[in-house]
Design a protein that fits this description.
about 140 residues; alpha+beta; HK97 gp10 family phage protein
Length: about 140
């Protein structure tokens, strides 16, 4: 006895789905960049406020790059405050810190950018994946 099966796949919505996923991913990457910038700005030490306001978010469709740039008397103040060991001054001690997309709190001090990035990585991945999943679910 011989069995034969035919499988047809309807691909007419693949192009539409790809465009929607591409747009949604870019929007969510922007949201993540903005969230990381604000969270890390909240966790950055405060003296005169120059460092906190110096963040920059650079976006492409697939990535967000957050950076801080502040110089004081020829010294790279942003790097010194991120990587250095120091005692917080009164302005820094008075700051509440930053709150990430997950709701986690990041205190003011060293590693003001890398701590939120590492602490929010799982939340960021889930945020992007949920957006893609929502679009795919809409095609069922």
């Amino acid at each position: 006895m011989k069995f034969k099966a035919k499988v047809d796949i309807d691909v007419k919505n693949f192009g539409i789905a790809y465009e929607l996923i591409d747009k949604e991913t870019a929007n969510r990457i922007r949201d993540i960049g903005d969230s990381l910038a604000l969270t890390s700005s909240g966790a950055a030490p405060h003296d005169e406020g120059i460092l906190e306001k110096s963040y920059k978010v650079e976006l492409t469709k697939r990535s967000a790059t957050v950076s801080f740039s502040a110089f004081n008397n020829g010294c790279d103040y942003a790097v010194k405050m991120h990587d250095g060991v120091y005692n917080l001054g009164p302005g820094s001690r008075a700051k509440p810190g930053g709150i990430g997309m997950s709701g986690k709190h990041y205190s003011v001090g060293p590693k003001y950018l890398s701590r939120p990035l590492e602490g929010e990585a799982e939340t960021y991945a889930k945020y992007v994946n949920d957006g893609i999943g929502n679009i795919l679910d809409s095609f069922e």
